[in-house]
Amino acid sequence: MFVLGHLGFGAQMARALHLKLPKKAFWLGALLPDLIDKPVYYFLSWRTGAQGAAVPIIHGTRSAGHTLLFLMTLSVMSLYLNRSWMRALTWGVISHLALDFVSDQIVGFPQLPLASHLPLSYPMRGEIPAAQHLSLSSHLFKLRQPFFLITEILGGLLLLYPIGKHRSLLKEPPPRP
Predict the structure, then answer these.
(1) What is the DSSP code string of 141-161?
(2) Do the Cβ atoms of 126 and 170 come closer than 8 Å?
(3) CB-count exposure of residue 97 (10 Å: 0-12, 13-18, 19+)
(4) Please, which pLDDT band fits residue 115 given cuts at 50, 70 and 90?
(5) How far apart are CA 34 and CA 40, in angstroms?
(6) Which residue among 13, 14, 127, 177 is least packed, with the fewest CB closer than 10 Å?
(7) What is the pLDDT of residue 71?
(8) Is the residue at 165 inside a domain?
């Protein structure tokens, strides 16, 4: 998925779970794995001239930000800090990883065993998979595929016209006394 898909569908998931979260922190969390991983991979690829598995250390666009270790770290910090913005950030990352998993099962890698293509278990088990898109332009070219184009349009519509009785997808929690 891309930006609008992660934001719109992620916010709808939070609403369905009746989470009262600060919007901006949730939306940042919904994009955070990609904001961390994609620039690092594409920078290393550009800097070294290598692509995919040939890129040193980081072989793909889903690395540290897409791991269970990252999610667990955010979860522990969220529990320790007990701040609504941190919970929102964590739930945003959860929605991102869930949506990536679903989209992979639909169009990405349904033929592979469950989670073999996801870096969730890294570094405990295996390596981060090599990039499926060797360049930024080939990554953006995915928007021409019907699934990704439709999820972007629907994600944008969900942001503009939330489903249900209330007009807001995410409810701001009441201020702390």
Answers:
(1) GGGGSHHHHHHHHHHHHHHHS
(2) no
(3) buried
(4) very low
(5) 10
(6) 177
(7) 93
(8) no
